[in-house]
Amino acid sequence: MDARIALPELMYLSPTTREKAVAVAQELLRSTNISPREAVSKAILIAKNWAVKNVNRRVWKKLKSVEKEMI
């Protein structure tokens, strides 16, 4: 599996996002009739969106805690 998805696009992701993308790509390949290239492309988009939401949630929580401390 790793040999099939050793694409340059994956190398630009952080390690956590890359792991998420590989897991999603494996799920897509198992569950649907999709080419490996398309599965990886979709998985990268899904993983990037997941990472952005994760970072945004952490930033939001930090801002809320700072706001509570100021009050």
List the helices and strands and how they pair.
Blueprint: H1 8-11, H2 15-31, H3 36-70
Structure description:
The protein is built from three helices and no strands. It has 71 residues and is mainly α. The chain has one domain. Helix 2 (15-31) packs across helix 3.
Short description:
The chain has 71 residues and is mainly alpha-helical. The chain has one domain.
Task: State the domain count.
Answer: 1
Count the DSSP helices. 3
Q: What does the largest sheet look like?
A: none
Summing up helix and strand content along with how strands pair, one would put the structural category as mainly alpha
**Anisotropy-based shape:** elongated
Summarize the amount of helix as a percent range.
over 70%
Rg, Cα atoms, Å: 16 Å
The helix-strand sequence is HHH
What would the average pLDDT be, to the nearest integer? Answer: 84
Distance between the termini: 53 Å
Strand content: under 5%
What is the number of E strands? 0
Give descriptors for this structure:
single chain, 71 residues, mainly alpha, 3 helices, 0% strand, disordered N terminus
